[in-house]
Amino acid sequence: MVSSGGTFELGFFSPSGSSKRYIGIWYKQILSHVQTVIWVANRENPLTNSSSVQLKVIMPGILTLLNAKNESIWSTNTSRSVQNPVAVLLDSGNLVVKDANDDSPENFLWQSFHFPTDTHMPDMKLGKNFKTGHEVYLSAWKNDNDPAPGEFTRIIDPTGYPQVLTKRGISVSARIGPWNGLRWSGSPIPLLECCLFQFIFNEEEVYYSFSLINRSVLTRLVLTYNGYIQRLTWVDRTKRWRIYYNLPADNCDTHSLCGIYGSCDIDNTPVCGCLEKFVPKYPQQWEKGDWSEGCVRRTPLDCNKEHVFIKYSGIKLPDTKHSHYDKTKTLEGCRQVCARNCSCTAYSSLDISNGDKGCLIWFGELTDIRKLSERGQDIYIRMDSSEQESEAGSKRKKAKILAVSFSLLVAMILLILIFLLYKRKKKKKLQLKEDFELPLFQLSTITRATDNFSPNNKIGEGGFGPVYKVYTANLLVK
């Protein structure tokens, strides 16, 4: 089965090095260079051969794979029925079961985009429908040659405020962070210019998708068998897939590597450090490279004392599992809400796409923080009021040091300028003296040159006396 535009093909295939047979979808237009499978139907029930096997649509609208004994190996499901069900492979790579006379997506009986394997395709929605409970997520292959479900999954977790998680079994191995109106908070790279990205979160559903601006571009996002997220784009000149990014990109993408209130900075050695005004919970373990217990406030919180919120900038926002949100509040409104509840540990802006809009509030300890100086965000963390005073004192001290340093610098510059001006003036004065100074002669020399001031050599009178003509050197002497 081939899609209408010839981009995709549905059929039987065997992974490299395997004799097992699967029903899958791949890119047809690049098949002569490489077979890139984007979806597998019977990934848990492979066939030993594909002879006498049927893939057919049966009433009330179910697509099923039957073996030689007419036993179902794999099938779709549906809660509705139609008069004339058919299976169609769309040019997006989406295999759908629908009524032959109804092309409306909302009326599809079933679609492969709702049951992806390891590949996120353009126009595919990853997320959860709160009304039906159906969740769309990526499931990695077991290995490069076995499409059976592996250890890793990639989900949109709606707990607290939605964020993207990569999980190994039930444990979180990596987290991209919440959507901030422009991008995922923890994404260290810009979004692709080829695509439009969309995040929808309301009472009925939460999902994330991307669509192509140029439909001729071939791009996909893959969850590899070892837990990496790869964005790949086909380069027609080289006839190869180019990896645009690979996540985790470094150790700091490891979930909660530095523990609570620890911040990971890939440019530091070691990479883990405590947030400012925090100290390691267990200093000896911390010094040995065991950061799992994280950090604690330098000055412990007391709910009976006054608290302040100190701003931390340029970071990946913490895990939002234990967070609340309000799309209507301002940042100041967010601070007021948090200030009234001692269990509220921090707050931040929910949407930074057009100024600060909405409110994201954390309850409990903050974890999985990393430094992202260029693409990071601001967060305001609850602290003892003495920390603000010490911060103000530190700022005053720094300001005083800067003022003294600046004054000394200005004084030095003025002294240098005065010295240079003096040298320049002195040099100019000497030069003028040299330019206008007349040569000196002995009286005996002048007497001989003027023939003892003979009247015959006198040529006139000047302001300073008579002027004589000199025969020896054509000199005029007063």
Automatic annotation (TrEMBL):
<dbReference type="Pfam" id="PF01453">
    <property type="entry name" value="B_lectin"/>
</dbReference>
<keyword id="KW-1133">Transmembrane helix</keyword>
<dbReference type="InterPro" id="IPR003609">
    <property type="entry name" value="Pan_app"/>
</dbReference>
<dbReference type="InterPro" id="IPR011009">
    <property type="entry name" value="Kinase-like_dom_sf"/>
</dbReference>
<dbReference type="GO" id="GO:0048544">
    <property type="term" value="P:recognition of pollen"/>
</dbReference>
<protein>
    <recommendedName>
        <fullName>G-type lectin S-receptor-like serine/threonine-protein kinase At4g27290</fullName>
    </recommendedName>
</protein>
<keyword id="KW-0812">Transmembrane</keyword>
<dbReference type="InterPro" id="IPR036426">
    <property type="entry name" value="Bulb-type_lectin_dom_sf"/>
</dbReference>
<keyword id="KW-0325">Glycoprotein</keyword>
<feature type="domain" description="Apple">
    <location>
        <begin position="303"/>
        <end position="384"/>
    </location>
</feature>
<dbReference type="Pfam" id="PF08276">
    <property type="entry name" value="PAN_2"/>
</dbReference>
<feature type="transmembrane region" description="Helical">
    <location>
        <begin position="401"/>
        <end position="422"/>
    </location>
</feature>
<keyword id="KW-1015">Disulfide bond</keyword>
<feature type="domain" description="Bulb-type lectin">
    <location>
        <begin position="1"/>
        <end position="110"/>
    </location>
</feature>
<keyword id="KW-0732">Signal</keyword>
<dbReference type="InterPro" id="IPR000858">
    <property type="entry name" value="S_locus_glycoprot_dom"/>
</dbReference>
<dbReference type="InterPro" id="IPR001480">
    <property type="entry name" value="Bulb-type_lectin_dom"/>
</dbReference>
<dbReference type="InterPro" id="IPR035446">
    <property type="entry name" value="SLSG/EP1"/>
</dbReference>
<keyword id="KW-0472">Membrane</keyword>
<dbReference type="Pfam" id="PF00954">
    <property type="entry name" value="S_locus_glycop"/>
</dbReference>
<comment type="function">
    <text>Involved in sporophytic self-incompatibility system (the inability of flowering plants to achieve self-fertilization).</text>
</comment>
